[in-house]
Fold this sequence. Notes:
The protein is of the alpha/beta class. It is built from 16 helices and 24 strands. It starts with a strand and ends in a 17-residue tail after the last strand.
Amino acid sequence: xxxxxxxxxxxxxxxxxxxxxxxxxxxxxxxxxxxxxxxxxxxxxxxxxxxxxxxxxxxxxxxxxxxxxxxxxxxxxxxxxxxxxxxxxxxxxxxxxxxxxxxxxxxxxxxxxxxxxxxxxxxxxxxxxxxxxxxxxxxxxxxxxxxxxxxxxxxxxxxxxxxxxxxxxxxxxxxxxxxxxxxxxxxxxxxxxxxxxxxxxxxxxxxxxxxxxxxxxxxxxxxxxxxxxxxxxxxxxxxxxxxxxxxxxxxxxxxxxxxxxxxxxxxxxxxxxxxxxxxxxxxxxxxxxxxxxxxxxxxxxxxxxxxxxxxxxxxxxxxxxxxxxxxxxxxxxxxxxxxxxxxxxxxxxxxxxxxxxxxxxxxxxxxxxxxxxxxxxxxxxxxxxxxxxxxxxxxxxxxxxxxxxxxxxxxxxxxxxxxxxxxxxxxxxxxxxxxxxxxxxxxxxxxxxxxxxxxxxxxxxxxxxxxxxxxxxxxxxxxxxxxxxxxxxxxxxxxxxxxxxxxxxxxxxxxxxxxxxxxxxxxxxxxxxxxxxxxxxxxxxxxxxxxxxxxxxxxxxxxxxxxxxxxxxxxxxxxxxxxxxxxxxxxxxxxxxxxxxxxxxxxxxxxxx
Length: 609
């Protein structure tokens, strides 16, 4: 058994920043990650990092833009923490050697992004995430953080008290991809989940194949609620053939969207009369699909993004990577012709319920980054707010897990006097098919930490042995493909009740089929078939929470559009959706949004761009 004070699961932006903060706070810290850190999906982030750095801008404006972008479902303490901490954290990155793009006078460049009232997005060409990873990985190495790379964490070691708020997380179980060994990792002070998003729930996504919602699913099954999972962001500019992201930086620099008739439809059809292409992402994605659905799409599938007018020098200086992506995947030269783009799944606004310090309702369990929900983004994330979320809340989670006093959190986790039960009309049974297959350790508080971890390890070994010894049944790829197709067809940008119920039926079938899943590759070394089979179970859990929340929320807010409910209902729905795993069954409940900030209360207004 490996033993450390703080264990960070995942080595993207949030995981690296959490590990640095915990180690610098004096904790013996280790990272356990299924990918080498610089292969993490943060490396695919192109656009930039929002921070109020210049005269004329301030954190209050950043906070207001973020709250407006969230369609007033963000929690003010988390939003204000992001806006207040981001400038200092961006400057720290620059001091660590982050190669930001610069103006001629030497200042860090900032450009406009969708939904921002000031050009506050710092960037490093069109490869901001790539440079962010390398910059922080250098600090991880410098500070002596132990990295267990290519270790796939598949289970948390958590006590099984009846009330999740009485439970404690003592560590994790890891599968060594190189050898096939399954071992325990004991955390004396805390486990921080930084495992990224669940993009592989959909078949057209900007997310890497590694983004399978592992942390969210493990925390969910251990008793931590998932919050606002119905809010899924579909980025307006992805390449049609692959889902590869085309940065919002293209539109930030002045790129223009056209339909098949050559109309600049964001203005000419009234989708965003003031901001046009730089409206928030949910607005632009719906506009593009409306154009396609009404017969004005190119080849009835996509629209055109044109940046030719920016000139070769500007494109090569700030957007060179975009040229390579368009050429490599679509055969299009962005210097001489427009690029085809369409919406694709990009980001999960919801996640593991946390406070602004990254702490969940389970003692010793933290989450940060896309897998977490504080909630900063509410119903819609602004472009350029994901990367500051990683560094701000990764840092705070690392410090808090290491024992540093960050003050009392203003955001509550778990059930309180203000929470209320929810209900939803599902056409099928929900949750586990076999409730005996659970992940919590046995015997609650009576078991010592070592025994909790050892029990979880033994449980996982038995599960893996069963999968490897079974020689027939259903392969995970069949289940995953049907799941992804159902989610893409029915839980996409445009949603309706019948489609959501169809998705729930398909998810139930996936759960039932998974009971007969087997692994075709019997080997122990680099068995990707085994790893992906375990990941598919996570995707099923996450798909169900997304769809269940979408069916329950009968309003139109942010990225969540319902055909039958075309208005935002502040009198009914200024509240977060929470789903808890209750002995194998999803339990739906709600808590109010926190709109009271440090010095002001954010009053919901009509959101227009």
